[in-house]
Amino acid sequence: MPLIQVALATPLRRLFDYWPVAGEPLPAIGVRVKVPFGNRQMLGLVVGQVETTDLPANRIKAALAYLDTNPLFTQQHLVFLRWVASYYHQPLGEVLQMALPALLRQGQALHPPLEPRWQLTELGKQTTAASLQRAPRQAALLKLLQSTSQPKTQKNLQAEGYSLAMLQGLQGKNLIEVQKLANKKQGIGLPHLPPDEHLPKSVLAEVPLKLTEEQQQVVQLLINKTNNFSPALLQGVTGSGKTEVYLQLIQQLLEAGKQVLVLIPEIGLTPQTLLRFEQRFNRRVVALHSAMTDKERLDAWRSAMQGRAAVVLGTRSAIFTPLPRLGLIIVDEEHDASFKQQDSVRYQARDLAVMRAKQEKIPVLLGSATPSLETLAKAKSGAYLWLHLHQRPGVGVLVPEPKLLDIRNRKLIGGFSEPLFLAMDKHLKAGNQVLVLLNRRGFAPVLMCISCGWIAGCLHCDARMTWHREPPKLHCHHCDQQQPLPLTCPQCVEGELKPLGAGTERAEETLVERYPDIPVIRLDRDSVRNRNDLASKLEQIAIQRPAILLGTQMLAKGHHFPDVTLATLLNADHGLYSSDPRAMERTAQLIIQVAGRAGRAEKPGEVIIQTHHSDDPRLEKLCVEGYEALALDLLEERQQINWPPYAHLAILRAEAPKTEQVEALMRLLAVQANLINQEAVTLLGPVPAPMERRQGRYHMQLLLHSKQRAPLHRLIAQLLSWLETSPEARRVRWSLDIDPDDLF
Ligand code: ADP
Ligand code: ZN
Ligand code: ZN
Predict the structure, then answer these.
(1) How far is the CA of 664 from the centre of ligand 1 (A)?
(2) Where are the beta strands (DSSP E) in 122-266?
């Protein structure tokens, strides 16, 4: 008898062999199975069958139950998920768990349990209602069921006034029963369904916009490539009509009966985006994102895997959705940092989109106004088709050129300089909206005593605590530690405590003081906690003018604000002289995103960037020649210093409550690495992490760098095997980050 191979979500990077469930047919690959594991039970996925195992016969246990009759993943999709596990060096079980909606992970049936239906028994058919005269309601119920040949759902019967007690009364007399279903396991998988046959013939629910010549060319080029793996970069400023291109391309695929997956950044998935897709097509469009309930997610996932949903619009984890007729993947705002998962399996959804498209031999379209250097390098080398949209359709307004406003030696009030205020006055007086972007929450990033220099720091991290006004507290944004505001300086007792720098709360206070009659609408994580908050803020923005829109990144993405004529970034300097090689790329993307918010409609716009370094040649280049010119320079720099995308990186991180524990392990790890390494990989470290103490634990890291991917991955595989068996590693939490986004 063959054994079944089960993938379980354990830290062990291997599969587990079990006897099949006794008395049941062998399970299909891709069904969930319950198995004994140690002294508990676990849910896993059947991923194969084997004839032999290394385990001694008396140690092999039998699987307990299958949870599905049909596979949740096709073979093709499993190939993809196996690739993910091997590329990121993660246990297959962990990857499969991640690919399942939470409710399926917890063992719930794929289909919701059916509503019980009641029908007559043989006895019930022959009994006259009159014989139940002592129970008139039961008699009426019996009569009702006798008047129809169809069983009735319990819900309907209850709605008609028959209680469960009455139903059970008749059941007790053997007159009625709950209908038994042919499928003995209620609510277990259906076969993959063909596309709905009852759908309206036309894919379109509205007349699409007439494409501009530029858009038309792009769509035409892409349509000719729909039968093959063909990656493309669509580069175009905000408002250049990329989404319209997506929609018209999707239309073609839906007409061919295909499904389309659209990945968008976390905060880009607004109700308006979803609506725009839903309004266009007579086909089912489903969303998949973290703000949905588990039940909503399961419903959307199921309709995708059964082929009922034609378009799936989701954030990064939607890349794992099974789609039996997938014909195209689109990644919008492909440069966005939210496509990188920063814990457990640290995957990059944009990279996975390209790999999945390659495996499925379908096109993948990456769209952005500010493409990542990785994607740009591929476009430049010709590996990706490189498409541009230069104009904004209709109005012909281009993105305004950002102007640098030097704030060296200028007095700042709550982060604003006087010339900036004057520019704002002008736009507000004209009845327009002004957008102010500041990437810092809270009132002030630093609270300091002006007589002794004491600074409020976090007890658990090498970090300062942010001062929040509402509610008043000190908050560490790294470990979430919160504490009340000190009334006096804890160090010298008499000194005055003052805020340094400005966050959104302080900027808001400053604006309200200066513009008492103008609404200030603030959007950040503290003022927008859920979808309702967001909807109400967007509603205010839609009706108030003049108005000031103030916020973090949240404000720079995805939304259309047609009446914003001045967009400003309060401080461009955070990323300019950072040790993170990606910082300049990020800053440039942010500036262009901000610029894209101004002058979208008929009104010409203005963009002002406050900085202490207005003579920085990179900033100048960005403003005068644009993002692409700067990005190509940055790419050249990267090539010179042998850095991604011209080399490959991985980071092994380790943390423990005591420095010695981390150090001991990392020293051994480096020794191992040097033993195995054939010089193709450079080891940088181990060194303390940039923030060494975080959440009360010590962090160290070892950076691995290589020109080629293969030797790097070989070394990692060997290091992980060593880590998994090393006694030193037991007291230390470690993790691996392949293609890291940041170096800490
Ligand atoms: P992006 O996704 O690049 O930000 P959108 O597709 O959202 O751009 O287009 C920006 C605005 O221009 C939208 O209001 C859209 O309806 C409009 N638009 C796009 N394409 C056309 C077109 N061909 N003709 C007229 N208006 C268009
Ligand atoms: Zn003091
Ligand atoms: Zn902290």
Answers:
(1) 57
(2) 152-153, 176-178, 230-236, 259-263
